[in-house]
Specification:
heterodimer, A: 367 residues, alpha/beta, 9 strands, elongated, B: 776 residues, three-stranded antiparallel beta sheet, 31 helices, 10 strands
Amino acid sequence: MSNKLDRQQEELQRPAAEVLYADELQQLAEEDGHKPRPAGWELTPQSVLRFVLGDKKRGLQPKFVGDRSFVERCIVALATNRGLMMIGEPGTAKSYLSELLAAAVSGDSTLTIQGSAGTTEDNIKYSWNYALLLSEGPSEAALVAAPLYLGMKYGKIVRFEEITRCPLEIQDTLLSIMSDRVMIIPELINEGRTLYARNGFNVISTANTRDRGVNEMSAALKRRFNFETVHPIPNLQREMELVERETNAMLERAGIPKSINKDMTELLVTTFHELRQGKTGDGQAVETLSTVMSTAEAVSVGYAAGIHAYYYDNSGITPDHLVQSMIGSALKETEEDLKKLRHYFNHAIKDRKGGHWKAYYEARRFL
Amino acid sequence: MAMTTHQTSITPEIYDPDARVVFFPVRHHSPACARLIKQLIHEMNPDAVLIEGPADYNAHIHELFLEHRMPIAIYSFAHLEDGTRRGAFYPFCVYSPEWQAIQTAHEVGAEVQFIDLPWAEFAGQTEVTHRYADNQLEESQYIPMLCDELGVDDFDGLWDKLFEIDETLSVASYLERAHQFMWHLRITAPIIREHDIHREYYMAGRIQKKMDAYNGRILVVTGGFHSSALFNRLFGKGEPNPAPYEQAAQVAVKEQGIALTPYSYQRLDNLKGYESGMPNPGFYHHIWYDTLNKTPDTHRKLISMVAQMLRNRNQPVSSADLIAVETTSQALATLRGHTQVWRRDLIDGIISALVKDELIFETQHPFLQAIFEVFRGNERGKLAEGATLPPLVSQIQHLLEAHDLSPDQGSRNITLDLTKAPDLERSRILHQMRVLRLPGYILFAGGSNLQGYSDVTEVIEKWIIGWSPEFEAACIEATIYGPTLLDASKAALLERAEQLHAPDAAQAAGILLDAALMGLPDHSEELYATLEKAIYKDSNFLTVAQALSRLLYLYRFDNVLGTLQQSDVGDILRSAFQRALWLLESLGVLEGEDQALLNGVRALLDTFERCAPVLNTSQQDFTDVFERVSKERMQTPVLRGATSGVLLILNTIDTKAILANLRYFADPDQLGDFLTGLFFIAREKIQRQQDILESIDVLIQGYDDDSFLVALPSMRLAFSYFTPREKHYIARTLFDDVEESPLAPLEISMDEAAQVMAFESALYKAMEHYGIILDD
């Protein structure tokens, strides 16, 4: 990576996946050479898989933690004539996975539509530069392309985040495009009136299941997607590794010379894991919270604890910081959750062995 | 733990297909192994084929050459001195390598022998009773490493990738690859168990004997875990000899036996944990036949089977969906480097292209359920004529004779008093037979048949014992569930529990009750959990109430049945009671289920009256619910009648309110329904409430003939709850001139009487019309 890029990257809060992992993508592309692959793809499906899951032999970092067969299904869906729809609880890394896939398949993860109640067709397809439109009439020069237009034109993956937050009629904009792979621009008379999608174009959508019912999807649109449920990480050990890695990466990027250690990660992730599953490691039942206890939340609690520790106490992260940050960043919903968390401390954590657990139990005074 | 030999690599002689003695390492139930063994036997034409299987079956081995319908199993049982009974299975599918080895060896005229230690000799030392399970293989640390390396999720995927998918794999390359693989698994195994060393020592001895007896070639077919050890004992550096059994550990065998028994894919697929072997027998069944017949594209056939099954269940699957499943599976197979679409590719293809909902952790989506059912297959074995009868049949005969329950030519009735120990024992046997659906034994009163069992103070069951020509065949068929009556009925019951897909509290409670009646203590915890879940998920008042009445029986008579913990039953009774109460309150209008509804209300009342202390519900809370329901305008007359009846019984309603309700339902097509509800619940009390009876009388007297005929059928039902004596008493209350003796029964049917009345009324009308007036 050139120095210029390094510097640019340093200034960014969060560089895109294709920038962050440019050298890995480069390495895989070289290895792939002229091997057969779906038309319009930058890498072979095997390399996309290696990029996402990591590969020790090739020195590729693991980026997403999940079942291999699940990731395989996602990749294959993109190579068919259907789109990929990822559903799951908030914070299960759906968007992150879609970013990784787009970066690996198209070398570009930035063609992103952010779904919301206010999303319009203009945000999805195209709009006009009105000054040019008035002076020259409709022309391709006056057209302002939105992500879907660009994705079709250049044969790239388009990401549609939180699609069910959009009203139904806006979602249905995708219908004809997903099936016929063509966009009609009626304002243009001759040239450019029809935009045919180039090979490599496809759509990855995400939708979280907690918001289901805000806007359902039409059956017609459902038919044009392969659905995949993204589960929280079932394996405690792997979740701990991920949280530790991500938290420390975030702290480092924020220029904070503190890191979360193994013991603190264990406290944090065990709590999240147990409260999510509704039972402790030894099978005791605990009440699940109404707040989503996702891995992403765990990382942000770890991050917040790190900031707290550095700026206010100038110490390492302690159980006190964890509990305080947990209240602020994880328990958003109700008073009830706080009661349940207190109950969890009093029943599940009380008898755990080990110094950090004892200290963690003491920290319940902040609740 | 025993020492393993320290070897850094495997000697090439072990996988030489041209050696005199060829060791063929199998994974049990692998069709690839079966195919290659068949081929190898034809090529090498051995004098003897020696197979890992119980040596004490050799005396009957000719029975395996009969025309059985697969799958079948060799069942071996041992009754140990310390009183434990232990049975083990050696199941064979048509595609089992052992089975194909036996059949092919027989075809080419080679001697077939089982060489494994008889089960009875190590029955006390292992928990694993499926003798062709994979437990030894799956323990190794080598597996996760290799999975990671080859990019597969688990051991099954690994095995498929290495050995199953490539149908062009040759015998020589199989032998080399499998010996390498299995040897690595063995040296990385965390433990080599003492009884396995004993078995290998025994097997080596048997092989040595045959090597001495024959000049020609010998094929040894054993689980891959043992192959290298056997080779080392006979040709290599040797293996440590087994330590002599410690006296304390070795339990003497009192009785042992071995016989064939029918088996099923369902049973094979149900094995979990240590007992499990290769999954998805239905899938490999199709693979076996299609590879044998060189029919390509097994996956298309399977996809269409899944589609058919889904359509039969009214799940919409379009042709476009199936095309998407096919292309997705193909693409996954390509991505994974499979030369044909395989097991996991199909499952993933369906998840990817068909399932449009969130997959919830630990629950099965109906689409996936369909594919797992197709992958499970539904083959059920049947023994050929001439095979020795399986032990269950004779065990049942012994039990019946010992307890004087044998069927005679005619049928007879027996009455069992469950408070007496011998009768309880007999009752349990009969319930076990009932759960196994053995014909000829019918329970007609008592037990879970609650209909004929409402007001009793003693615990009586009445059975009819009759002879059925199907009886013996049914016993043989039931062997599929297990070797003894207790085991088999237990397995049949657990299967029923497993097949409860939709939450149905009534069925779940029925299963728990059956377990208690059968005298099965050990599984109650599991069944409790199922029931608890069903109660909370079931939103049907009728089934929850039915569950409640079953639990009530269990609660009241558990001290007699003596199988469960009274306090546990109390807990679950409380859950069911509260759930049923809640569902009653939020009940919509139910049409055509009047009797079930009434039974449900009765169950709630009975539970409240008999078990109030464990219910944690005050009378006030209880009656509040009924009061609300009895006043609900939209509710049916039957339910409002029944709820009024409950309030009447508990003395929380005054007669005025009932009379008001009565007037509300004065309409002729409603009155009967209301009274049906009222009388069903509060019959005893009503007959002494003169004012209510009189009001009813006034209402009915007020009807003209047509209205009366409309009201008649439901009125008739309502009054049928009273006994003849009670009816007479009511009549006397109303009319002074009724005779002392009860009313004489009508000589014609009710319908005819109604017709006569209708005719009479029409006749009078016509006469009136024409001015004909009779002098009375």
